[in-house]
Amino acid sequence: MDRDGTSGVAVGRVVGTEDSTPLSFFVALAPGQFVQLDDVVVCDRPLPNGDTVAVAGVVSQIRARHEGARFDSDVFLVEGGVLPAQTTEVAEVLTTRVEPEVYVPPLPGAEVRRAEDKDRDQALYFDQMDKQLPIGVDHRDEPLFANLEFIDGTRGAHVNISGISGVATKTSYATFLLFSLFNSGVLGAEAINTKALIFNVKGEDLLFLDHTNVRLDDRERERYRRMGLEPRPFESVSVYAPPRKGDANAKPDVATRTTGVHTYYWTIAEFVEQELLPFLFADAEDERQQYTMIIHNVAARLKVDGQRVGDDGAWKIDDTTVTTFGDLCDLICDRVEDDMTRPMWAGTATSTGSVHAFIRRLRSAQRPVGHLIRADVKLRPDHQAGTSDAKVTVVDLHNLHDRAKRFVVGVTIRRAFDEKEASGSARPLLFLVLDELNKYAPAQGDSPIKEILLDVAERGRSLGIILVGAQQTASEVERRVIANSSIRVAGRLDPAEAQRAEYGFLSATHRQRSTIAKPGTMFVSQPEIPVPLVVEFPFPAWATRPSERGGPPPATDPAVAAALPDDPFDGIAPSDPTA
Prior knowledge:
Elements: E1 10-14, E2 24-29, E3 40-46, E4 52-67, H1 74-79, E5 86-99, E6 111-114, H2 118-123, E7 132-137, E8 143-147, E9 159-162, H3 170-183, E10 195-200, H4 218-226, E11 237-241, E12 261-263, H5 268-273, H6 289-305, E13 306-309, E14 314-317, E15 320-322, H7 325-337, H8 342-345, H9 352-364, H10 366-369, E16 392-396, H11 402-423, E17 430-434, H12 437-440, H13 448-463, E18 465-471, H14 479-483, E19 487-490, H15 495-498, H16 508-514, E20 521-525, E21 533-536, H17 558-563
Parallel strand pairs: 9-18, 9-19, 10-16, 10-17, 11-12, 11-16, 17-18
Antiparallel strand pairs: 1-2, 1-6, 2-5, 3-4, 3-6, 4-5, 7-8, 13-14, 14-15, 19-20, 20-21
Helix pairs in contact: 6-9, 7-9, 11-13
């Protein structure tokens, strides 16, 4: 840090009435000076050998009081001029960096100055980050950064975000991080081939990432530019939605975006060949081992005993051709119940009770999942969500039953994981953005989806798959998924949840502040910085709902676009109250 002492304005001196330690100290503010929470300050400590140690830290708490008063009611006497007293303000500072690393306490009386420019960068370790990823701004609109090496797998990977639904802005922050990755230049030439796979679980908010946001004002644009980012929507976005139930043409089930949307589904042949049956039972976490054996036995028999027929993904077993999921369920139930075929399909060691339990749960999957597994429509070339045709792929789940959501998430992530594993290279990177992580990788129980997410958390770093997971309560998510996340973020938290061990990266003060944090404020912890950064991120430059969109997207699936009605929003000005 600068040794001339001229960088930054002097704000006060280290007090002598409180213990000063190498890890924290207190600063009495000079008359006319003030500091806020999260301000960065620095002071110098001379050593007997003539060297100087610079101790920098972040303001974590501030208190003001009357010196000379003894009782609460004395405040009236002081203000009336009857009782002499002096108002003092003292700030507590948590040490972030000591340079050189000689851990000695600041001495009472030492001048403390606000860290600016080079001092600030050194205090927050920004000077040691070869690849700085903008993650937001501080309360002075100065840019804040994360070390990309702890995200891209070089020294660590994965981001986990917690917070109350609707207040913590978890998904908005996740998409902002993606935008920063793609547009800040931190990825260099790799940005061209880097991909993102986003699961949209609530409403249709993420279906308009490629539209400008008409609510973005000049102040928010300036905050982007302070971070070296140009405010604009995402480029190269592909949207996938499930087919509408009962629609013979399998049109996408979306209400507000009717162009540029692919319909995703799996053919019967793909369901059998890829052995996707276990993903229908992802919520059966407490079933007995025999129940699991039936699932895998049936999946194997379907594959061995049948063959693909036709061009639309039908499957034939013996003389039976299966084109709908209902037909497939009928065939499976007949085989596991039949005395002749049961030993091969259900297994010889399974009980009648286990067989009946399997059948009940398979039948219960017909209604929520049946329209996603089919061979009764003309096969479309892009009927599975993939990352090959766009930089950002959005998979819409919001209209699906929870059981169908689990199926889609599990199967889609497994496909992406298998493709990355087969490529044999960690580059290009693939970012997976998944909200409601507690549903897919819960703290208790096991399921195929949880196994896939654990693989991503534990081996994804070496494969170039980065999980950006979000949930309301980190305490309900599998511990190993959280533990493998190098970057941890908390928005607005429930007071009881904030006290859980999963938020040990927050100090007592930060935990208290997290319960009153406003939308757009996040607490970001990263390995290099010993205290979490309090980050404000700008309003999205891309539309987050239909009324915010500034223009129509290009159609990315001509076959689907031709079969759909005209976009009802075309020709309506963004400011029109009917839009």
